Amino acid sequence: MPAGVKCQVEECMYNKETACVAEKIEVTSNGNDVVGTNKGTMCGTFDYRDHYRADAGLSKKEYRERFDEQH
Questions:
Q1: Average pLDDT for residues 6-34, to the nearest whole number?
Q2: Which of 1, 24, 39, 49 has the fewest other C-beta atoms within 10 Å?
Q3: Contact between 48 and 67 (Cβ < 8 Å)
Q4: Model confidence pLDDT, tens digit, residues 26-45
Q5: How far apart are CA 47 and CA 12, in angstroms?
Q6: Nearest-CA neighbor of 1 among 17, 24, 18?
Q7: Strands 27-29 and 41-43
């Protein structure tokens, strides 16, 4: 990722000290008719940082399978 791409979303797994470390990013419209402002866009690259899953060393698929089994 080029230097200078900032991320303020603490819950994203690509946010490292407010810098985006994803290999690439995708920005899309969120479909709310305010595309003329930053509120009308969203990061399609966002991936939720689940500390519980990460600490357990599970992939998303493994985590979902275990979650589904338990609920």
A1: 84
A2: 24
A3: no
A4: 888 777 666 566 667 788 88
A5: 5
A6: 24
A7: antiparallel
What is the rounded CA–CA span in Å between residue 51 and residue 24?
Answer: 23
Two tokens at 47?
């991936």
Q: Are 43 and 57 spatial neighbours (Cβ–Cβ below 8 Å)?
A: no
The amino acid that residue 25 corresponds to is I
Residue at 33: amino acid letter: D
For residue 7, count CB atoms less than 10 angstroms from its CB and return exposed for 0-12, middle for 13-18, buried for 19 or more.
buried
How many whole angstroms separate alpha carbon 58 and alpha carbon 48?
A: 14
Q: Which residue has the tokens 């060393």?
A: 57
Name residue 7's amino acid. C
Instruction: Kindly state the tokens that stand for 39.
Output: 């509120």
What element of type H or E holds 29?
strand 27-29
